[in-house]
Structure formats: structure tokens, C-alpha cells
Specification:
By secondary structure, this protein is α+β, with helices and mostly antiparallel strands. It has one domain: FAD/NAD(P)-binding domain, CATH 3.50.50. The protein has helices at about 15-25, 55-65, 65-70, 110-120, 170-175, 230-240, 245-255, 300-320, 330-360, 365-380, 380-390, 400; strands spanning about 5-10, 30-35, 50-55, 75, 80-85, 90-95, 105-110, 125-130, 135-140, 145-150, 155-165, 180-195, 205-210, 210-220, 225-230, 260-265, 270-275, 280, 285, 295. Strands 5, 6, 12, 13, 14, 15, 16, 17 and 20 form a nine-stranded mixed sheet that branches. Strands 1, 2, 8, 9, 10, 11, 18 and 19 form an eight-stranded mixed sheet that branches. Helix 1 runs parallel beside helix 4 (about 110-120), helix 1 (about 15-25) runs parallel beside helix 8 (about 300-320) and helix 10 (about 365-380) packs across helix 11 (about 380-390).
Length: about 400
């Protein structure tokens, strides 16, 4: 039996699930399609990585009713300390300087995933199809027919709008033939949770090195998420090191601001790429999150940008429905691109600029990056601009974000 949906979302990760929550109130019929069994925590987005949430993301999650579910599992960031290895320049961004209670929060991805899917199950108009894999789709005059593989064989569904939120290696993007701009940073982020001798006092650290950033994100008094970025050709060496050897490397590169590393948990490697779709939509189809733009994690902006995109698309759909437009009216997606392009472009340029500035061997780049950090630390206006960008409240934003009072 073939089922009809107004919207089919491929990808039940954080951006796809957030978008489902964002449009649930429209009462559109929604299918959320996911290849992993969600209850078994095998969805790649919902691993043990620490996710940095900007104030704009917190506000959005509060609006969804998800924040209360994850509140017990989040850690506030009171200060961000940015330094450049073997250079004297550094920048400190503090909540108190800006009269804020915090600059953001850190949550483990698994906790976020459980909260989002608990919320989704409360909506009668959302059907979760999993474990189900998208094999193909065919464009029809009235919409798109999806061919899905399940444990019971092939399943066909029809949708008026197909949303590809299925990550950097998007099947939706591939099947649509949308080309991408792609760069391999030749870096791998090695992520693990660590326990340190001294408490972190809710300080997030980022140290730029010649091989990529080293970051510590607070997740408890003495626990932090460690992100060690290595050249990809050396990543397996670090992943296969004995814990004691790896700890020595980290302490040598990062120092002992938090004392000794007392415990290190399982390490996972994530290759770093820049991927940008040359177009984000075509008739009856739109890309969201990493499927549309995968950016360097050096500024922790990936999920925050994807979440703003999700609520931006939901806003345009809601406005379109209020004007009696059909869900597949192309003007809705045109309005979405008009709304979101400035923020997307700004964040992509910001993250690419950091990558080019801090990981470039040129003496000129090294000198400029060091000078820039000194300027930012000394000039309040520059620091305020950087903070607003990091918090996701600068520039043209969806209404839900514009409502924030900081």
C-alpha cells in the first residue's frame, strides 16, 4: 500500500528531527525517514560527541519544548579562551563582560537525540519510518515518489516536498544530481571525553595549532569533551595509541591548564571536509544541514547554523500556508533561500577564514592571526561582534531568533 505525505524528511539526525519539530504545528502529514534503529543509539548524529549550543539554539529548543528534556544534561559555557600555539596572542570571551549568564551550552549528542525523538513521538502527524533506507526517487507532476528499502522489502511513498537532511554524503543530493563544491582539509577530528585533575569552571578552550584546533568543552565539573584535530595521514596513529601515550601528546600540545588528564574515554575519528551544494533546492526538494553545507568545526557552528536553517524553512512554509500557497509552491523555497543565504554565507566565510588563517604555513598569516587575537582581546567592539556571530544572533535571522533578548 502506498502512503501519501505532505513532507518527507530523509535523515533523522539533529537537523532533520529539529525540522520535524519545527513544522509539526502546521498539521502537515510528515514522514521522518531514518536508516538507523533510533532506540539503539546507532544514529551517527547521536554519539558521544559534545555539541556546542549557541544562545540562539537554546531559544529555538525552548520553543520546541525540548530544552526542558536536555536541561539536566547541559553544561553552561561561562568563558571561551582562544589561544595560538607557540604565540603570545590570545582572546578571552566572558559572559560577565557582556552581562550574560552564559555564552552557550554543551550537550552530549545522545541526550539531544533522545529528547528530540521523545518530542517527535508526541505529534500524531509525524510518522517515523525506521530502519528504512532511501534507494531512489522519481519526480512526478504532483510530487515525488520515494523508493524505500525495509526489512520487509520495498516500500513506496509519495510526498509533495522532499527534505534532504541526510548529512554530508547525502543520498537525496546524489540522486537529485545537485553538484557540490568540496575541499578536503586533510584533517581528522579525534573526539573523546576526558576527566581532568582540576575543574574546568565552565570554561571552553580552543588552541589553534599547525595541524588544526584542540578544543576542550566542559560537560561536568572535571569532565570535558576533547577535540584533537590531526593531519588525516596520522589520525590512525593517534586513534590506535595506548591511552597513556595519547594523554602525553595532548598534555604536550595543550598544556596542563586543567592539571593532569586522569581518565580518557573512547576515541572516535571524524574526517573534516568542506562541502557546499551549488544549489539548495529544486522543485519539490530542498537540502538542509550538512547536506547543504558541511563546514569546518573550528568555530562549533555546524549544528547551530543547521538549526537556524531548519526554523527558517519552517517559517517560510508556515507563512506560505497562511497565504493559502500549496506546500510545493516554489516561491516558498525561494523565500527560504532569500532569508537564509546571508547567514549561511557569513558563517561559511568565517569558518573558512579561520581555517585559512590559522592552518596556513605562511609567516604573514601567522603574524596576522596573532595580531588579530590581540586586537579582539583589547577592543570591546570587535569582541562584541565576534560574540554575536558565535551566539548566532548577528545579521538577518528567522523571526524565532530575532525574538531573543540578550
Amino acid at each position: 500500500m502506498q502512503h501519501d505525505y505532505d513532507v518527507a524528511i530523509v535523515g533523522g539526525g539533529m537537523v532533520g528531527a529539529s525540522f520535524a519539530c519545527a513544522i509539526a504545528s502546521t498539521n502537515l502529514s510528515i514522514a521522518l525517514i531514518e536508516t538507523s534503529v533510533l532506540e539503539e543509539d546507532r544514529q551517527p548524529s547521536y554519539d558521544e560527541r559534545g555539541i556546542s549550543l549557541s544562545p540562539s539554539s537554546k531559544h529555538i529548543l525552548e520553543h520546541f519544548g525540548v530544552w526542558n528534556e536536555i536541561y539536566a544534561h547541559v553544561t553552561p559555557i561561562k568563558e571561551i579562551h582562544v589561544s595560538n600555539q607557540k604565540k603570545f596572542g590570545f582572546t578571552r570571551l566572558t559572559a560577565s563582560e557582556s552581562n550574560l549568564s552564559e555564552l552557550g551550552h554543551v550537550v552530549i549528542a545522545q541526550s539531544m537525540g533522545k529528547a528530540l525523538h521523545k518530542k517527535i513521538k508526541q505529534f500524531e502527524n509525524i510518522e517515523i519510518l525506521c530502519p528504512v533506507k532511501l534507494e531512489n526517487f522519481i519526480k512526478q507532476d504532483s510530487g515525488i515518489t520515494l523508493e524505500l528499502s525495509t526489512s520487509n522489502g520495498t516500500k513506496m511513498i509519495d510526498t509533495k516536498l522532499l527534505v534532504g537532511a541526510d548529512g554530508s554524503n547525502s543520498k537525496v543530493r546524489e540522486l537529485s544530481g545537485i553538484e557540490v563544491k568540496k575541499s578536503d582539509y586533510k584533517q581528522t577530528a579525534i573526539v573523546s571525553n576526558i576527566t581532568t585533575q582540576k575543574p574546568n569552571h565552565s570554561v571552553a578552550y580552543e588552541r589553534f595549532t599547525s595541524h588544526g584546533p584542540i578544543a576542550l568543552l566542559p560537560i561536568d565539573d572535571n569532565r570535558s569533551v576533547l577535540v584533537f584535530t590531526a593531519h588525516s595521514d596520522k589520525a590512525n596513529d593517534y586513534l590506535n595509541m595506548l591511552d597513556d601515550e595519547y594523554v602525553k601528546v595532548i598534555e604536550n600540545e595543550f598544556g596542563r591548564r586543567l592539571g593532569k588528564i586522569c581518565k580518557i574515554e573512547k576515541r572516535r575519528g571524524y574526517p573534516i571536509f568542506y562541502i557546499e551544494a551549488r544549489k539548495q533546492f529544486e522543485k519539490n526538494l530542498v537540502l538542509l544541514g550538512n547536506a547543504a553545507h558541511t563546514i569546518h568545526p573550528n568555530a562549533a557552528q555546524g549544528f547551530n547554523l543547521g538549526l537556524r536553517d531548519a526554523v527558517g524553512l519552517a517559517e517560510c512554509i508556515t507563512d506560505g500556508l497562511e497565504k493559502k500557497l500549496a506546500i510545493d509552491d516554489e516561491s516558498i523555497l525561494e523565500k527560504y533561500i532569500e532569508l537564509r543565504s546571508p547567514d549561511q554565507k557569513s558563517v561559511i566565510e568565517f569558518c573558512n577564514g579561520i581555517a585559512n588563517c590559522f592552518y596556513n604555513e605562511s609567516f604573514l598569516y601567522h603574524s596576522f592571526s596573532n595580531f588579530a587575537m590581540i586586537l579582539i582581546d583589547c577592543i570591546p567592539e570587535l569582541k562584541s561582534t565576534l560574540l554575536k556571530k558565535a551566539m548566532g544572533v548577528s545579521g538577518h535571522q528567522p523571526r524565532l531568533v530575532r525574538d531573543i533578548n540578550l
